[in-house]
From TrEMBL:
<dbReference type="InterPro" id="IPR036868">
    <property type="entry name" value="TusA-like_sf"/>
</dbReference>
<dbReference type="InterPro" id="IPR027396">
    <property type="entry name" value="DsrEFH-like"/>
</dbReference>
<protein>
    <submittedName>
        <fullName>Selenium metabolism protein YedF</fullName>
    </submittedName>
</protein>
<dbReference type="Pfam" id="PF01206">
    <property type="entry name" value="TusA"/>
</dbReference>
<dbReference type="InterPro" id="IPR003787">
    <property type="entry name" value="Sulphur_relay_DsrE/F-like"/>
</dbReference>
<dbReference type="Pfam" id="PF02635">
    <property type="entry name" value="DsrE"/>
</dbReference>
<dbReference type="InterPro" id="IPR019870">
    <property type="entry name" value="Se_metab_YedF"/>
</dbReference>
<dbReference type="InterPro" id="IPR001455">
    <property type="entry name" value="TusA-like"/>
</dbReference>
<feature type="domain" description="UPF0033">
    <location>
        <begin position="3"/>
        <end position="67"/>
    </location>
</feature>
Length: 197
């Protein structure tokens, strides 16, 4: 079993350290972390790569044990088909508004854009929020409601953790998951189409 000490490492380092071992063919991993956001990122990465995950949180250390699963063939096929169906369009939003000069109009346009996305029968596979765009996921806002509606339709909402930390709003995020540059970049590049707002 490979043991990875990622304590004290900032995102996306814990995921990258884990990825190195996964890419080398490791089937059993034990990763030690010291914050919940990194643990969540590592957990999602492992699960996406076919690992069964167990999490133990004690004495300030979060231990993630991952074992490469022998999934039934039909379950693997269904998962692959679902992923292909969702890998169509990724949207990167890097501001709270659309446009520049008129902030009021820009805010109205952004809310209209998110509201429209949430009403689509085939919404984007990923919406990634970075820079000022992370503020769209703040609790008790109409934009957060639209993002939550998208999530319920299967859209992955990835919120840049570096950005939320910069603005001091990590605890106030109400939609999506706190993510990292590696996961966001991978999600954007794996989509067939990308749209930047």
């Amino acid at each position: 079993m490979a043991k990875i000490d990622a304590r004290g490492k900032s995102c996306p380092q814990p995921v990258m350290m884990t990825k190195t071992h996964v890419d080398s063919g490791e089937k059993e991993l034990e990763i030690y972390l010291d914050n919940a956001v990194s643990a969540s990122n590592v957990q999602r990465f492992l699960e996406k790569n076919g690992f069964r995950v167990q999490i133990i949180d004690e004495d300030g250390t979060i231990t993630i044990r991952g074992t490469k699963g022998d999934w039934p063939e039909n379950a693997v096929k269904a998962t692959e088909e679902q992923q292909k169906a969702l890998q169509n369009t990724a949207v990167l939003i890097a501001d709270r508004v659309i446009g520049g000069e008129d902030q009021v109009l820009g805010e109205v346009l952004m809310k209209g854009f998110l509201g429209t996305l949430s009403q689509l029968s085939n919404p984007p596979s990923v919406v990634a929020l970075m820079n000022e765009g992370v503020k769209l996921a703040l609790k008790n806002t109409s934009s957060c409601d639209h993002l939550s509606a998208l999530r319920k339709k299967g859209t992955r909402i990835l919120v840049c953790g570096t950005c939320t930390n910069h603005f001091g709003i990590t605890a106030d995020i109400g939609a999506g998951v706190i993510s990292n540059m590696f996961e966001i970049t991978e999600a954007l590049l794996s989509a067939e189409k990308q749209l930047t707002v």
